[in-house]
Design brief:
Elements: E1 3-8, E2 13-19, E3 21-26, E4 29-33, E5 37-53, E6 56-71, E7 73-78, E8 81-83, H1 89-105, H2 108-128
Parallel strand pairs: 1-7
Antiparallel strand pairs: 1-2, 3-4, 3-5, 5-6, 6-7, 6-8
Helix pairs in contact: 1-2
Length: 137
Amino acid sequence: MTLNLRVLSPNRVIWDSEVQEIIISTNSGQMGVLPNHVSLVTAVDIGVMKIRLNGKWSTMALMGGFAKIDKDRITILVNNAERDVDIDLQKAQETFRRAKACLVQAEGKRQVIEADVALKRARTLLEAINASPSDSN
């Protein structure tokens, strides 16, 4: 059995095909979804989604949103997302370095929160392509 997975951002359809299983990051932790999953709606955290298709795993960096699961149909609405094959390693590493520097220089609560979110997004891009953020120092 398979699941119909659709990942949509405001600008484009990022994924629209059958998969065997997914694992997503929610605000309360990671959640695995298999065929005939109970119906629910959940917030999606900034994090890596793992997708199993034809017995192989791939990943996608999700930048927050919502997921609606209805038995064998999953619709994920995200602010932005990038498939692992579309992420440029050097660009992701540079984004991580800049985000880290911004966090160090942040002054005031708002700047710290914004810099922390930017760092989490940058780290997620690296994790989606299996590059350790510590490799980007």
